[in-house]
Structures are given as structure tokens and as C-alpha cells.
Amino acid sequence: MLDLRPNCECCDKNLPPESADAMICTYECTFCRDCVENTLHHVCPNCGGNMVQRPIRPPAQLAQHPASTKRVLKAAGC
């Protein structure tokens, strides 16, 4: 089950579960579309993998399996 992390690891932008702006890699590293396209150039800085749009969990399932509230931020930035 995806964590649906609440923020961009690069710029700390809020990425709510319903955000179409959230991008992830295969390890669920989470970044906003702007950082992925303009700073990271579609490559995860943590694992080197590609980034794809994070799926949106339907509201009924989100109630049953809530998104993570743990924020992750790269201390050294991107």
C-alpha cells in the first residue's frame, strides 16, 4: 500500500492525497511535478530511478487507509 507522503522532499510543497501534482519513484520518494521537471529532470535523486505521477486513492479507500502524515525533506536540498 502506498504511503501517499504529504510533501515534496525537495521544496516541502504540500501534496495532499488527491494531488495530481505528486510524483513518485519505485521507492515512493515523493516530489512535486515542478521539482521533478525543472530540478530533477525526471530522475529520483535518491535511487536514480524514473518518476511517475502518484496514483490518487479513491475517497472511500482513503478513509479506510489514510495517507501518511510523516514529512520527509532532503536536508541538503535537491
Overall description:
This protein is of the alpha+beta class and about 80 residues long. The protein has a domain at about 1-40. About 15% of the residues lie in helices and about 10% in strands. The chain has 2 helices and 3 strands. It has helices at about 35-40, 60-65, and strands at about 20-25, 30, 50-55. A 3-stranded antiparallel beta sheet has the order 2-1-3. The mean pLDDT is about 95.
Give the tags.
78 residues; alpha+beta; three-stranded antiparallel sheet; 2 helices; 10% strand; globular
> What is the approximate shape?
globular
- Supply Rg: 12 Å
Strand content: 5-15%
Strand line-up in the sheet with most strands: 2-1-3
Helix/strand/pairing class, anyone? alpha+beta
Rounded mean pLDDT is 96
The biggest beta sheet reads: 3 strands, antiparallel
Helix content bin = 10-25%
- Regarding quaternary structure, what we see is single chain
Q: Would you list the SSEs in sequence order as H and E?
A: EEHEH
Number of strands: 3
* Number of helical regions: 2
Task: Offer a quick outline of the entry.
Helix content is 15%, strand content 10%. It contains two helices and three strands, in the order E-E-H-E-H. It is globular, with a radius of gyration of 12 Å.
